Every structure is written in C-alpha cells, then in structure tokens.
Amino acid sequence: MPTTPSTTRAACVTRSGRRNWTSFCRRSSHGRCGSKARSRNEGATMNDEADFRFESDARYAVLTLRAPVAESLRDGLARLAALTDVRTLLLVLSAETLAAPGPAAQALPDALDRDCHPLVLQLRALPYPVICAVGGYATGLAAGIALACDVVVATHRAAFNFSFREGTTLPGCGSTWLLPRMVGMTRALGMLLLRDKLTADEAERYGLIWACVADDRLLDEGHGIARYFASQPPRALAAVKRALQAAADNDFDAQLHLEAAMHRELANDRQPATADRPRDGAGGRP
Predict the structure, then answer these.
(1) Same domain, yes or no: 94 and 176
(2) H helices within 112-251, ranges in order?
C-alpha cells in the first residue's frame, strides 16, 4: 500500500535528524517500523506483552515493567545478564504501571539506596543502547529510569516528575546530575523549582526525550528503534555511549584523545582475521 506523508509520520517519526533509522524501518522486511509491532498493537495494550522476552531473530530484548517497578527492573536485568547476543534493550512503562503508588516518605531514603541508585547505574553501564517507551505519568523512580536510558519515546499524554511528591521537593535517581547536562542549568532549575510536572511534548521540545508519538504508535516506535540499533555494529554503538558518558568529566583535549583511541579500537576490529588474530566469535572477543 502506498504511503502518504501522514501515514509515514504515524509509522515512524520522521525528522531530518532521524532519517537513518527511519529509512531502515522503511526498507526492513518487517515493513514500516515493523508490521510485527503493529499487529501486536491491534486490539491490544502494553500490558498484553510478556514481561521479558528476547527477539532472537532481531537480537534485542524487551522488558515490560510492572509494579513495583524496582523489583520488575531488577528481575529483568538479571535475566538480561544471562543472554549473550543482545544488541539493544527496550523498556516499556505503561500508564497502568506508572499509576502505582511509590514508596512512603519515611521509606524513601532506603528505597533510593536499595533500588534507585543501583538500578540506574546498571542501566547506564549497559554496553548497548537502552530505549524507554513511556505511556503515562512517570514520577520518582520511573522518571529516573527513563532519564538513565539512551533514547526515550513517549505518548503525548505522558508526563514526567523527577520528584517523588507533588510540589517542589528534592528529586532523586541522579536527576540533579543528569538534567543540567541534558537541558542546561537554567532549564533544569526551572523544571525542578517551578514545575511539578513536565508534559512529554515539553520534554521533547527541551531535548529531554527523543520523540512524542500517538498513544497507539508507542510500541511501533520503540520496536522500530530497537530493530535499527540491533542492525548496527554493536562495538560502534558501545563506543558512542562510552564517549558521550566520558564527555561529562573530560576536558576537550582529553575527549579528542579518547575519540582517537576508540577509532583505533574500531579499526582493529575491522582488520581481516589471521592465524594470530581470529575473527570475533571464533576464539576472539565474544
């Protein structure tokens, strides 16, 4: 069936900065942004998805988080660690999951130490891209999880509150470190001091998330990006993540040296196999 600009927009968010993965979606054998994801959406909600599964043909994992979110994420990351050929991870946060209450005020310090801090560190340390699809109002831990991911897509009805209570309260999960680096200090101060809720459309406009999509396109968008990442050279994707994370602490000169070193590593990976240097997966690196 021929596509029109409107149907293309619905299937894949198309903007000048997104053409690489969008063109991949169009030429993929799965169809525009994946007919698999679309057929799954027909008459279904995000809660119809299995909690954790590995798309072995596409080499990406999908984790649909449930309440309590911390326990669900901890279990999913443990399952993920047992897999050997994962190229990317897609996290799904449904509106139903996000509606569950968070920890009580007196339990919050322990919950941050036990749940939030180790989980967001684990997410940021994964060597491949992590996508988060947000379908509702993400607060506290859920908002921190989204912020720790590499690419976030959300529905237009979604929103974010990095605090654990309504009104101006201290946020957690590293958002006071991440937000100024993502949107600038002035914008971060305004978000945390003046607003208790940031809509997904505002988050996209400020550069906090990658894209806003219609409610019934969220899974299509997430799966489309996951398939694109899974089709790319995994060490190149890992190098981009490492370089960007290191940039937060490096000066410009150190970053130039880091990039050069990473390019040398990637060039060595592309060298033909020899008796002394077998190909990856044949006695070389996994």
Answers:
(1) yes
(2) 117-125, 140-148, 175-183, 185-194, 200-206, 218-230, 234-247
In 54-209, alpha helices (H): 69-81, 95-98, 108-111, 117-125, 140-148, 175-183, 185-194, 200-206
Does residue 282 belong to any structural domain of this protein? yes
CATH of the domain at 150: 3.90.226.10
pLDDT digits (tens, 9 = 90+) for 232-248: 999 999 999 999 999 98
Q: Is residue 174 part of a domain?
A: yes
Encode pLDDT of 45-102 as tens digits.
Answer: 334 445 899 987 789 999 999 999 999 999 999 999 999 889 999 999 999 999 988 8
Q: How far apart are the first and last CA of the chain?
A: 41
- Give dist(CA 179, CA 152) in Å, integer: 14
pLDDT of 195 > 80? The answer is no
Domain count, the chain: 2
Task: Give the model's pLDDT for residue 105.
Answer: 78
* 220 and 256, same domain (yes or no): no
For 26-178, strand residue ranges (E) read 52-55, 60-64, 88-93, 130-134, 137-139, 151-155, 159-161
Q: Which residue has the tokens 């209570």?
A: 165
Domain that holds residue 87: 14-230
**Interstrand relation of 60-64 and 52-55 (parallel, antiparallel or unpaired):** antiparallel
DSSP 8-state assignment for residue 278: P
Sign of CA dihedral 27, 32, 33, 37: negative
**Tokens 């991911």 belong to which residue?**
149
In 3-state terms the chain splits into helix, strand, coil percentages (rounded to 5) of: 50, 15, 35
Q: Is the pLDDT of residue 25 over 50?
A: yes
Residues 29 and 170 in one domain: yes
pTM of the prediction?
Answer: 0.78
